[in-house]
Specification:
Elements (H helix, E strand, L loop, with lengths): L2 E2 L10 E6 L22 H14 L6 E3 L9 E4 L10 E4 L4 E7 L3 E7 L4 E7 L1 H5 L2 H13 L7 E4 L9 E2 L1 H4 L7 E4 L2 E4 L1 H12 L6 E3 L14 H4 L6 E7 L1
Parallel strand pairs: 3-6, 4-5, 9-13
Antiparallel strand pairs: 1-2, 2-14, 5-8, 6-14, 7-8, 7-9, 10-12, 11-12
Length: 243
């Protein structure tokens, strides 16, 4: 099994964070090492994949929180007894909890406040970014958990790069020109940068943000990409957990 593990949380042994790739358990095309039940993969295989991942990361004894991602601006505060609901961001202030994001091009964002021991996980595609789900999550962290920008450490996981993320003009006009590159009447959106700037505007120091430069679309040997593979794309799983 091959996972991407960010360095930004290295000084916090109480945190587990990682992002899966296509490589694991010698799975084959088209889904490879997939952790989503919603893409057509065999349910038994997906359960085996998840179980292997939980064992690899030593998550078995933790409460595991998934969500029904709908490209919304809904952020939920979860605890040990929470059940999955429709949302695209979760916040948790209890030990022994793990928050998961399912992705195949969208930006996954993992947040930790080591002072208050708060974790958060955000799924932000273009719709979530336009709705500013990350900003709304940060505001909840501030208003309900006394978390300031200077307190936060953040990892933005692998996602599709601007060079490969063509959008229609109807989407492009929803974003500041800073995030749009127009080439020969085609528009290319930088979703990761838009979210990175939201973090900076909130006051998160640059040296407390790790923004992955990996493009899920380009690295076909390692990453699932819905934009590249369509309906036959598997999904990666990102996690942040507080032991």
């Amino acid at each position: 099994m091959f996972l991407i593990k960010p360095y930004i949380f290295n000084n916090f042994p109480e945190i587990i964070c990682g992002f899966t790739t296509k490589i694991g358990l010698d799975r084959k095309a088209p889904y490879y090492f997939n952790i989503s039940f919603a893409v057509g993969d065999d349910e038994k295989i997906v359960k085996e994949n998840r179980s292997a991942l939980f064992s690899y990361l030593k998550l078995e004894e933790l409460n595991k929180h998934f969500q029904k991602q709908i490209h919304s601006d809904i952020t939920r505060i979860v605890n040990s007894s929470s059940t999955p609901e429709e949302s695209d961001a979760m916040i948790c202030s209890e030990n022994k909890n793990a928050l998961f994001i399912i992705a195949a091009d969208c930006v996954s964002i993992f947040i930790y406040n080591p002072h208050n021991k708060i974790i958060a996980a955000v799924h932000s595609g273009w719709r979530g970014t336009q709705k500013r789900i990350l900003e709304k999550t940060l505001n909840i962290l501030s208003n309900k958990f006394n978390s300031k920008g200077k307190d936060l450490f953040v990892y933005l996981g692998p996602s599709i790069s601007q060079a490969n993320y063509q959008v229609g003009e109807e989407v492009a006009v929803l974003f500041d020109d800073k995030y749009i590159n127009k080439l020969y009447d085609k528009f290319y959106l930088d979703v990761a940068l838009a979210n990175y700037d939201i973090l900076l505007d909130f006051g998160v120091p640059k040296n407390q943000i790790q923004k992955s430069s990996i493009c899920t679309y380009e690295m076909s040997e390692l990453f699932h990409s819905y934009r590249r593979d369509g309906e036959k794309s598997g999904r990666s799983l990102g996690v942040i957990a507080l032991k």
